[in-house]
UniProtKB/TrEMBL annotation:
One of its GO terms (cellular component) is primosome complex. This is DNA primase large subunit PriL. PANTHER family: DNA PRIMASE LARGE SUBUNIT (PTHR10537:SF3). Heterodimer of a small subunit (PriS) and a large subunit (PriL).
Amino acid sequence: MSPEDLALFPFLNASSRYVEELDFSLTSLLTERAFHDARRRGFSRVAEAMDGEISKPASFGSDREILNELLSYPYARILVSCVGESALIRKYALSEAKAAYEVLRKMADKNPEFLLEAGEDFDITANDDGVRIHIYFSDYIRYSLSLKDISWKLVNRRLENGFVTIHRDEFARLLQEAIRKKIEHSLPIPNIPDEIQEQCASYVADLKQQYELKRKDMGETDFGEVDFNIFPPCINKAITDVKSGVNLAHSMRFALVSFLLNIGMKADDVVQLFNISPDFSEEKTRYQVEHIAGNEYKTPACATMITYGNCVGKDKTCEKINHPLGYYQRKVFFKRKDEEALAGLSRTEADQTEAGQSVSDENSKPDNV
Ligand code: SF4
């Protein structure tokens, strides 16, 4: 692959190796003036992802531009990790993958070898017969399972000697899924040192503000950190069942997974929640969770939950809402109000103590001072 290709697909292993060989220190990327454009582009990657579309350069004018494009990716990963929002991580991974797909789709007929080479990066076994691509069936299943359209179902495909025949642009679409998963699973970067966080602070603050505004515009709620103590009765019951090894009905399993993803739990953490029962299959559970996450499905409303027998009995809060997410949103709202009231109370107490202190200090002054 040429350096231009690597810059367009910076999440490939070959691109990471190329950057490693260039031998730049992370400190120089974060601090040196020479890398200002790379940092700026890293910031744009994340900002553009919030709108669902990351632009890719049509061409590169110089080696410097290639380098900036390549280095902007690790910088963007640091920024996304510092913002620390699961929903943003999902959006970012999806936008990077979609942008890559647009490039792959355009090069599908001109350069099918590149597609196969990119596929190797994801351990995909495939070959091109000059017109179409034959992909090994388990690789096909791995990346097509999260795709909604019925045409992706294996029964609707030609399967010969273990290989599924697909169009080149369809192969590019599977690569999009592979890229999305790879990026999503590798974020956030854990334990970013304080020093690095400080060096990125102004970009991170800017992104947090933009993210908040976007979320408000779209009527999305910031649920904050996941709080298991304020889940609705139906979700609590489902979790208890999972933990005691009871198999959930398909509709309840869907409701539980979509609920947890919608309040911001990471797909990996949702998968681990099911890692209790003796017949737990990580691969199968991951497929299901990622299918729901990838398609951004919404949790069913209470009316649907009742129809499927998944409403286990309402409590007082249930009487005021018509959606399990509405239940959680209401609880979060009141929890925050309580926290604010408590903070206000302790501030008042602190003020009073201070005032009391100064009064007693006054009173304790010796007369001769
Ligand atoms: S009323 Fe809605 S939120 Fe409450 S238990 Fe039933 S389905 Fe869940």
